[in-house]
Amino acid sequence: MKTLYLIRHAKSSWAFDLNDHDRPLGKRGRKDVIKMGQHLKEHQPRPEVLISSTASRAFYTALHICDKMDIDEGQIRLNKKLYHAGASEILSVIKQAPNCEKLSLFGHNPGFTSAVNALANLNFDNIPTCGIVGINFNVKYWKDVEFGGGMLAFFYFPKEI
Fold first, then answer.
1. Is the Cα dihedral 124, 129, 132, 135 positive or negative?
2. CA 87/CA 31 separation, integer angstroms
3. Which terminus has fewer CB within 10 Å in the chain: N or C?
4. How far is it, in rounded angstroms, from Cα 132 to Cα 35?
5. What is the pLDDT along the chain (161 residues), one digit of tens a residue?
6. By CB neighbour count within 10 A (0-12 exposed, 13-18 middle, 19+ buried), where does 131 fall?
7. What residue ranges in 14-158 does DSSP mark as E strands?
8. How far apart are CA 40 and CA 28, in angstroms?
């Protein structure tokens, strides 16, 4: 059994004159990601592999989650394919993941919502910022994950916690 954690980046800031890729987390985002990291630590096992979009807001979401879950930040792998990836690109990253039981991806909408819906035959309208969706797959290797093959394990988001 494999478990995928899809984590949408926390709320970003528009206060700076930066390009989209470089926008940092905003005040609410920093507050939410700390809360969500603590909740994840209390309710789910730690992911062994973490792969983040190269965008600042996704990478800093991953760093904060690592801090709260006592994961060495050096375990985060950056993958530029996750920056505004669609469902097919996200599936490609999953299929190429190293062998582990728990995999965490950090990225963006609308791709993450599309991927969740396609992977587990769901009909989510939107994964909110800092939302975390867990999907289980009854496969031995990540390369065997296919659209429609997953089962929803959990869905956490800041307003619920």
1. positive
2. 28
3. N
4. 12
5. 999 999 999 999 888 888 989 999 999 999 999 999 999 999 999 999 999 999 999 999 999 999 999 999 999 999 999 999 999 999 999 999 999 999 999 999 999 999 999 999 999 999 999 999 999 999 999 999 999 999 999 999 999 98
6. buried
7. 49-52, 76-78, 102-107, 132-137, 150-156
8. 18
Beta strand extents in 28-124 (DSSP E only) = 49-52, 76-78, 102-107
End-to-end CA distance of the chain: 27
pTM for the whole structure: 0.96
CB-based burial, 49-63: b 16+ in 10 Å, e otherwise: bbbbbebbbbbbbbb
Q: Evaluate the omega torsion of the peptide bond into residue 24 and state whether it is cis, within 30 degrees of 0.
A: no
